[in-house]
Amino acid sequence: MMKLKTSTKSSGNGGNNNNKDTTDPPIPEGKTLIVDPDRAVAKNMCLSEENASGVVDSYLDTPRDGIFTFYGVGGEGACGIDTASASISGMSAAASYVLFDANAKWIPSCFEDKHVVRNDKICINKCVKIEYKGKTLTVPINNECPGCPVNHVDLSRKAFDWLEPLDGVVGRATNATITYIKC
């Protein structure tokens, strides 16, 4: 099992890359890869499970037959953080809108610019584990897929390519097992 951990120098700027080591480590080969969320970003969001709203807990740790697609990473995702820098190497996921609380409050963060972040449990150390063709990939959730049902996850291109390395030719992979977990 390979595990990528973040090694960023966070300036508390909401994920802007100004003071961040942007050198991506090589993505390891293998059958299992766990990508940790950027703990500096998570800390600067200033969110806590106790004070957050959300429905994601009722969906955790339940494997589902599912599919995955990919999307272009960039900009602030549904949690209010830069999706390209929220995890090491830009590997992350957008989860179904069903897992997000439509009434979650947007609150000031602890980043230097105090930009707002979504006070939703899914934005606090939640990951998705995808099992596909003998490989297992776990990546942080930092965005919402408005058209996806619960068994569909939209991955960053790098995450998709790790599971299905056909240079985007497939675009939509089926027969995967999707499990939402705490990370």
UniProtKB/TrEMBL annotation:
Every Expansin-like EG45 domain range: 76-183
Cross-referenced SUPFAM superfamilies: Barwin-like endoglucanases
Keywords per UniProt: Signal
Segments for region (Disordered): 1-32
Biased composition (Low complexity): 1-20
KW Ubl conjugation (keyword) present: no
Listed name of the protein: Expansin-like EG45 domain-containing protein
